[in-house]
Input
Amino acid sequence: MSRSVLVTGGNRGIGLAIARAFAEAGDKVAITYRSGEPPQELTSLGVLAVRCDITDSEQVEQAYKEIEEKHGNVEVLVANAGITKDTLLMRMSEEDFASVVDTNLTGTFRVVKRANRGMLRAKKGRVVLISSVVGLLGSAGQANYAASKAALVGFARSLARELGSRNITFNVVAPGFVDTDMTKVLTDEQRAGIVANVPLARYAQPEEIAAAVSFLASDDAAYITGAVIPVDGGLGM
Ligand code: NAD
Output
């Protein structure tokens, strides 16, 4: 059955692969994006693209209204949008810290809270949050990012307890290093250093993260909630 699916930050990278996987499975997919133009590929797949900055509750409300009008109640939410602002603690400004938390954690709170309204009404919902292996292991120069990604685990597990009886599941996917714009900024030397610590000895492709998300959103995962699924080539074990 075709579900209404929303993927935040679905215009590129991991979010794009997730949106593509749902659309190819026949779901009604909407994505939000912050800037630029969504790729033509999404339009061809019939994906609804809505510009929305998740740091602004009013934009989140407007985006939901549009999506609900066109696709009905959101049944599957993938909170994927996220940013990094890497720097060592001694150079990290309060703004560097706050802006990463405002996007990765509070932005996720904003979209989850709005999605919950319809999921409660429908007595069904699947929420998947994209965290990171860095949230579990820590990473020098990424204290802001790691803190925001670790917090998503406590957020999801609290909601899994709070809303399990309403048939809404909350799960977390924790990717390792994935080939996207976010990691393109790393030098070849940094990439080689990372890969040297990954048992599978390579980066992930975005589609490999999408596969775990699709599973968690499926009926086969109906009895899974509060789980953190690493898709990290073994890096975090
Ligand atoms: P990316 O930079 O290619 O894409 C990030 C997406 O988030 C973009 O679509 C962007 O528009 C959106 N976004 C950022 N700030 C936003 C805002 N304020 N409002 C709305 N949308 C916003 O990154 P990616 O690698 O595809 O990462 C996707 C998610 O996966 C992120 O949460 C990231 O932290 C996480 N992740 C990435 C990796 C990796 O190695 N690439 C590893 C672990 C986790």
Remarks:
- The radius of gyration is 17 Å.
